[in-house]
Amino acid sequence: MKNHNSMIFKKKGPLLLFLVPAFAFLAVYLFYPFVLNIWNSFQDIGGLGQAPAGMNDPWYKNYTDMATDPVMHTAILNTLLIMLCTILFQVGIALVLALMVDGIRVGNQFFRTVYFFPIIISATALGLMFNMVFLYDGGMVNELLHSMGLISKNIDWKDQSHWFFTMTAPVMWQYVGFYFVIIVTGLNNISPDIYEAAEIDGASAMQRIFRIKLPLLHNTLMTCLVLAITGALKVFDLPWTMFPNGIPLNASWLTGTYMYKQTLGGAQNVDYGSAISILIVVLGVVISQVANAIFKEKDY
Amino acid sequence: MTTSPLVKKQRNPVRAALSKIVIYIVLGLWAATTIFPFLWVLGNSFKERKFILSETFAIPTGDMFTTSNYQTAFDRIPIFTAYRNSLVISGAVTVFVIIIAGLCAYGLARYSFKGRRLLHSIVLAAMMFPAFATIIPVYRMEFQWGIANTHSLPLTWLSIILPQVAGNISFAVIVLMGYIRSLPIDLEEAAFLEGYGVTRIFFRIIMPLARPSFATVGIFTFLWSYNDLFTQLFFLRYEKFYSITRLLNMISSQEGTNYGLLCSAVVLVVVPVLIVYILLQKNIVKGLTAGAIKG
Amino acid sequence: MKRKFALLLALVMCIGLLAACGGDSGSSAPASTGGDNPAPSDNPVELTVVTSYGQEDGNRGIYEESYKAWEAATGNTVHDSSSMSNEEWKAQVLSDFEAGSEPDVLFYFAFADGDPLVNGGKVVPIDEIRAEFPDYASNMDDARIPASTADGKKYVVPTTGIWEGLFCNNVVLAEAGVTAPTVDTTWDEFLEMCQKVKDAGYTPIAVSLASVPHYWFEFLIMNKGGFADHLQMPTESEAARTAWIEGLEGFRQLYELGYLPDNTLTNTDDEAVLMMAEDKAAFLIDGSWKVGWFKSNANSDNYSVTYVPGNSVRSADEIIGGASMGYMITRKAWDDPDKRAAAVSFIEHMTSDDVVSRMSANNLGTNALKNSPAITDFPDKISETAYQMATGAAKQSGAVQDLAAVDARNELFTNDIPQIAAGQMTAEEAVDKFIAAYNG
Asked: CATH number of the domain at A59-294, please?
C-alpha cells in the first residue's frame, strides 16, 4: 500500500478529472437505463418497446417467480457450471499457452496472431460452423467417427446426454484467445532485469514460471478471473445460435439466454427479463467480490 | 530472488530439446484448431453454394471455385461507404474508451479515498448490464436530445458512438487497472520530484509505460464496437449510414441458407479487424522494449 | 440535472468527434455541425417508410422499383428503412412509436403483433381514410382485408398473402412405391404412406419440433376442430379446447410411430428442410415463401405441392392462408397536413393492381385484389402444383396462432410441443397452460 502514501496522490483535486468522464458515461448510458430496468421489473410489460400496462401484483412478483421457476434454476446451475469451466479451461489453457509462447523465440509472433482468430469471427458465423461440425447427418464429427468405424448410427450431439459438451466446448475454445492476449500482455510487463537475475541464479524454466512469472502475473490473473466470472453470467450469443430455446427439452438454458428469451426471444415478458438481468448483475458483483477477497489484488 | 539458495546446475541439452518439441507440438495443435475454422470460412467463401454442404471441408478448386459470392457482395451494396462508417465509428469509440477508461483506471489504481471500493463495484456491475436491458431507454434519451434517428450522418455516428463508449468503459477500466497496479511506482515518484503534475505523469509516463495494456484494450474495444450488431441494428436505420457489419448482415441474411455469401461476408468483415489487430499487436511488443528502456 | 449534464457532455463529445473525424476520414465529414436539420419544405414531401421488405425478401426488388417509380412520378422523397421481420425489428418498430419517432407509413401486422399500435391509437383505420379519400384501397376485396385483433377494425392494406401446403419429394415417394397425396387422400391413407416411406428406409416427415412445429400445429388442430371453428381459441369454447388437445396429441402419435426425423427434438428448421433437398425425407408442411428455396437449392421439378390430407372433419382443400400484414398510415402522418395526401398516394401506388399482381406472380402468394390476373406460365413443377393448390383451395383460413399473444404461443411452440412429443407433458396440460397464459 505504499503508493497510497506517496506524495503525488495526496492532493485529491485531479481525481475528479480522472473519474468524472468515465462515471458520467456510466451514469447516463448504463446506470440511468438500469435504474429504469429495476423499475421495469416491478411493472407489467409485454414485448420490448411496449409501454407498461401497470404494476405487477404483487409488485415483487417477478422475484418470487424466479425463486420457484424450475427453468430459472436450471439456468443458474448451468451458468455456474460454465463459470467453473471458464475459469478452469479458458483461463487455464490460455495461461499454459501464454507461458509456452513466452518461452520460445521462433514462431512467437505467429502463434500470437492465430490464437486471436476465433474471437474476431462473429458468433453467428461460429455458431453456423459448429452446427456443421456437430451436425447429426453428415457433420464432421459423426463422419469422422463413421470412417473410423467407431459408430454405426449417427450420434445426436445435441441430445440429452451430449448437449453440455457440445455447448461448452465451442465457448471455451472461442475465448481462450481472449485471455491469452491479456496474459501475454501481463507477461510482457515483467522486466527483463528480473529474468537476468534469475538466469544468473541458475533457475530452471519451471522454477522461473513458479517463482517469478506466476507471482508477477497475480494481478493479471485476477483480472482474468473477474472477466471470466462476469463473462460466464453474460454468455449468450454462441449458445443461443446452437441451442435456441433450451433444447433439448429445456436442459440447456443459461442466465444470458433465458433473459434474452424473455425480452427478444419470443416470450414477451420484459419485466421478468429485467428481473433476471438484475439477478445477473447481483450474482456477478457478489461472486467477483468474493473472488477478490480470496485472492487480494496487490500493489507494487 | 538473490537470497534464494538455488544451486547452479548444468542444463541437460537433450531434455531441453525434448521439452521444446513438446511445447511446439502443443502450440501447433492449438494453432490448428484456431486456423482451421478461418480457412474453412475462407475456403467456403470461394465455393458455389451447392458444394458448401456436400464438400464443406474440401479446398475450392476446379468447378467448385467461384468468386461470385464476392461479386454479389460488391455489386449489390456500397461497401466502401460502409467501411468508412465502420472505421469512423469504431475508431472514435476506441480513442474515447482508451482516454476515458485510462484516466479512470489510473485514478482508481493509485488514489486511496473513501468509496473507492464502491466505485470499483459500480464499474464491475456496469460490465454485466446486457445491452438488451438498456437499449430502449438509451434510444429514447438520444431521440429526445435529437441525435438518434435523424437523417444526418455525423449525428448518426454520434448516436452510436456514445452508447458504445459507455458499454466498453468498464471492461477497459478493469483490465487497465490490473495492469497499472502492477507497474512500479518509482518512475512516477521520480517524475513528481522533477516537478511533473499528476495529469502530466499520466500522459507522459503511464500511457507509454502501459502501452501494451492500452493496445490490448484498444483491440478488444475496436472489435466489440465493430461486431456489435445489436446496437447497430437499433441506431443505423438507413442504408447510407450502415456500417460494414450491419450491411453484410443484411445481405447475408437475404437467403438464410446461402452459406457461400455468408462466408464471404464474414471474410469481408474480418479482414479490417485482422489488420487492426496486427498493427496494434506490434505495439504490444514494442511497448515491452520501450518500457524496458525507460524502466 | 443529470439530463442537462448528459446533454452538455454529448455536445462536447460531438465536437470532439467531428474533430477526430477530420483526421480519420479526411474531407468526408460534412462541415455543418450545428445539429439543425434543414426544415422540410412544404412541397415536395419526405415520407419515412418502415416495412419488412428488407434485402432478404423475395419481393424486395419489386418493392424498391415501385417506390422509386412513385418518387419519380410525384417528386416526393421516400426514406426507406426496411428490414427483415424478426423480434428485434418488432421491438424497434414498437419502441419508435413509444418514443414518438415513428415513421409516416408502416408495413406491419394486422394481428396480435400490431395490437399495441391499434390500442394506442397510433395508426389510422381504413374507414377514416376513406371518408376523405373514397378510392383508398378500392381495388381490394374488403372481405379479404384482415381486421385487427385488437378492435375488429381494418387498418392494413395488404399486398400478398401466404398459403401453407404439403410439399412432397417425388423421388423419395417413387422409391417407396407411393404416389403423392391428392385432394382425396385421407389422413389414415396418409399415415399408411408414411409407413411405406419409413419401411423403404426414408424419413417420412421432415420437421423440426425443436424450432418450427407451427405449420403442423395448424393442420393437426384443424383436422380435429374443423374449418369453420378453426379461429376459435381454446379459451372460447370447450369444443375448441378439445380440438387443441386432440390435435396436439397428434405430435406424440407421429413421434412415437417414428415418422419424424431421429433428431427432431434438437434439429434446426434448416436441417429438416434440407432433408427434403437431399432426398432423405418425403413430406414437409411449409408455406408459399418456401417455393423459392426449392428452386435455388434442389431440382424443383422433383417436388410438388398438394393439400394436407384431411378427414371427415376437415376437407383437404380447406387450407391455411391469407394476408396478415399490410400498409398503414400513422396517426402522426395523418395529422400532418403536408403528409396526409402523400401517404395516401404512396400506399395506393404500392398496393395498385400492377404492383400487387407482380408480387403475387413472383412469390406465388395469394392477394386480396378484386381483379387478380391468372398465371398460366410456370417454370417448373413445384410452381405449377403450388399455384394449382393455392387457387384450387375451397376455403382459406388465417392461422389461429396469429391471434394468440406472442408470449403464449411462443411457450407452446418452443417449449411444450417437444415435451408433448417426448411424453414429458400431456397435451391437456399444455393447452391449459396456454389458456392460463392467454388469459393472464
From this structure: 1.10.3720.10
